[in-house]
Amino acid sequence: xxxxxxxxxxxxxxxxxxxxxxxxxxxxxxxxxxxxxxxxxxxxxxxxxxxxxxxxxxxxxxxxxxxxxxxxxxxxxxxxxxxxxxxxxxxxxxxxxxxxxxxxxxxxxxxxxxxxxxxxxxxxxxxxxxxxxxxxxxxxxxxxxxxxxxxxxxxxxxxxxxxxxxxxxxxxxxxxxxxxxxxxxxx
Length: 187
What we know:
Helices cover 12% and strands 58% of the residues. By secondary structure, the protein is mainly β.
């Protein structure tokens, strides 16, 4: 509880302080192609007695209008399961296309199609790989930090999520809700 309170307090302070640093000067000139490109993504890392996890998901996008952007992303996830003897690892990878619309201040709507090739172990211990398609939509909050960078938080719902049909079915996600946080930077 104390950690959640401190994290919430820290983010509120960060967002309040950084909001005053953002400012696009009004310009009569149309932004150049280079000024419309942005990059960013997410990074995940966790360690426990049961598993180690690493993920990276870079994106590149283009601002079609000041409020509408679209882009592509790739992702890679590595997991080492230590609770089994011997331990084993899985490697998941995939790509996505997305569109984002800023509708009010720092708030945005986000829609995405994602394909993920995920690895799991079958009944006899053999490595198996399966593809998983997701149609995601939701919204989020973008907080500028400086002129050409910012952080984002978003919640997406997977409209194609299905519950496992048996206790032996393995899926890459255990919930239709996906929470993301990351950094975006312009050139």
